[in-house]
Write a structure and sequence with these properties.
There is one protein chain. The chain is α/β, with parallel strands linked by helices. The chain has one domain: Amidase signature (AS) enzymes. It is 36% helix and 14% strand. An eleven-stranded mixed sheet has the order 1-3-2-6-8-7-12-13-11-9-10, with helices on both faces. A two-stranded antiparallel ribbon has the order 4-5. Strand 4 and strand 5 form a beta hairpin. The longest helix is centred in the last third of the chain and has 21 residues. The protein is globular and about 60 Å long. 57% of the residues are buried.
């Protein structure tokens, strides 16, 4: 093959393993060499276990040679966000307050399913402290940079995973999403990310941000995320919110097309004031393309209005819950922004919190009724392209402004609907733009199918950052 092994998708690797044309050993080595050459500049990984990866690759190679793989992802490299427990490896959650010594004796459900499937864990990717914000930097790991422009953020909080994918360090990654934390870095890094329906992918321990937080797949192609979802959607009794086991093949319906699907195109969700004109133009072009592919696209806004205050109340309260028992000397080690959010959250009256929870429920009900008329909602993924590293927001640096530029993502954490970001263009400065596709609750397969149809018509995933 003319393509370097680390540039191949998970599906391409799996096919090569099956035909005995590629080896998991060579795939891992190619990824490790790539990481060694470039990650000092990007800082996508906070932990690498090359010895484990090489040993696992040898075991996988033996299984493929015996035509007995554990799954199609057997031998495929994957990066794991450092919010997810990984047996034998430290999970420090981007925080100086977490002791690296552990003990680390458990896998999170998604990680456990990956081991059972034979996927090869390379290491842990960076996250802001406890995943609290939409950019990726921390006192523990420093600044993670965007492979498209190292002076820009990869987004967050799954920024390490997004950067690792864009830089071709691995074809697959795990992310988490409590307010856009898969979709924001997918958008900023020009890759694909899916926030599945809440409970589709079991989570344990449960997030301190409660039922806002989802676990999901990230990859360069839609098909790869579908293959990954097939594995991580397996049941796990530790998560009492989890859906029943999902045994469908999410990759099998990707080529069915979107003719006749009803799409509500909402350029601003009815209330977003600040958005880059280039992003608006790119997303409108994407809506036209979907219409050309046979979808019935109507420009309309979902009801419910601006839910920023509701989200802020619930997120700030979650931060207060997270830090409620932390000793003062440890709190001094925290990101000051997280500390401020937690302090504000602790001052929220109980009645205000319960009112926000009730408003969330009403909003979710309203959106489910709206989705009886439409199959999907189409919006920008993020209101801005990637901005400078070290900042919380591109404008109005006041500790709350990140809710403004993430206004398209967090509403669908409130409603728990499946939502994906797929690349749909590039700004004039060469930075990626993302298209958000939101589905009915439980219709993860539909979101993947629409994403795949758009991707096939506009395959931007093939572009690589020039610095890589």
């Amino acid at each position: 093959m003319n393509t370097e092994i680390h540039e191949l998708s998970a599906a391409e690797l799996s096919g090569g393993f099956r035909r005995h044309e590629l080896s998991p050993v060579d795939a891992i080595e190619s990824c490790l060499v790539r990481i060694g050459a470039l990650d000092a500049k990007i800082n996508a990984f906070c932990f690498i276990d090359a010895d484990y990866a090489r040993e696992a690759a040898q075991e996988s190679e033996r299984r493929w040679m015996e035509n007995a793989p554990l799954s199609p992802l057997d031998g495929v490299p994957i990066a794991v966000k450092d919010l997810l427990l990984t047996r034998g490896w430290p999970t420090r959650r981007g925080s100086l307050t977490v002791d690296a010594k552990g003990p680390w004796t458990h896998d999170a459900p998604a990680v456990a399913r990956l081991r059972e499937a034979g996927a090869i864990l390379i290491g842990k990717t960076t996250t802001p402290e406890f995943g609290w914000k939409g950019t990726t930097d921390s006192r523990l790991t420093g600044i993670t940079r965007n492979p498209w422009n190292p002076e820009r953020t990869p987004g967050g909080s799954s920024g390490g995973s997004g950067a690792a994918l864009a830089a071709r360090f691995a074809p697959l990654a795990l992310g988490t999403d409590g307010g856009g934390s898969i979709r924001i870095p997918a958008c900023f890094c020009g890759v694909f990310g899916l926030k599945p329906s809440f409970g589709r992918v079991p989570a344990w321990p449960l997030s301190p941000f409660g039922t806002l937080a989802h676990v999901g797949p990230m990859s360069r192609t839609v098909r790869d995320s579908a293959l990954l979802l097939n594995v991580i959607a397996g049941a796990d009794a530790r998560d009492w919110h989890a859906m029943p086991p999902d045994t469908r093949d999410h990759a099998s319906g990707l080529d069915c097309g979107i003719r006749g699907k009803r799409i509500a195109f909402s350029p601003r969700l009815g209330h977003v004031r600040r958005i880059s004109p280039e992003i608006e133009t790119a997303v409108k072009s994407a809506a036209r393309l979907l219409a050309q592919l046979g979808a019935i696209v109507e420009e309309t806004d979902p009801p419910g209005g601006d839910m920023a205050l509701v989200f802020r109340t619930l997120w700030w309260a979650g931060a207060a819950f997270l830090l409620r028992d932390m000793p003062a000397e440890k709190r001094e080690q925290l990101d000051p922004g997280l500390r401020d959010v937690a302090d504000s959250g602790a001052a929220i009256p109980l009645a205000e919190y319960l009112s926000a929870a009730a408003a969330r429920g009403a909003y979710g009900s309203t959106l489910r009724q709206f989705m009886e008329k439409y199959d999907f909602i189409l919006t920008p993924s993020v209101a801005t392209a990637a901005f400078e590293t070290g900042r919380l927001a591109p404008i109005d640096e006041d500790g709350n402004a990140w809710i403004g530029w993430t206004a398209f993502s967090f509403p669908f954490n409130l409603t728990q609907q499946p939502a994906a970001s797929v690349p749909c263009g590039f700004a004039s400065d060469g930075l990626p733009i993302g298209l958000q596709i939101v589905g009915r609750m439980f219709d993860d397969a539909g979101v993947l199918a629409v994403s795949a149809a758009y991707e096939a018509a506009n395959p931007l995933y093939r572009r690589m950052p020039s610095g890589c």
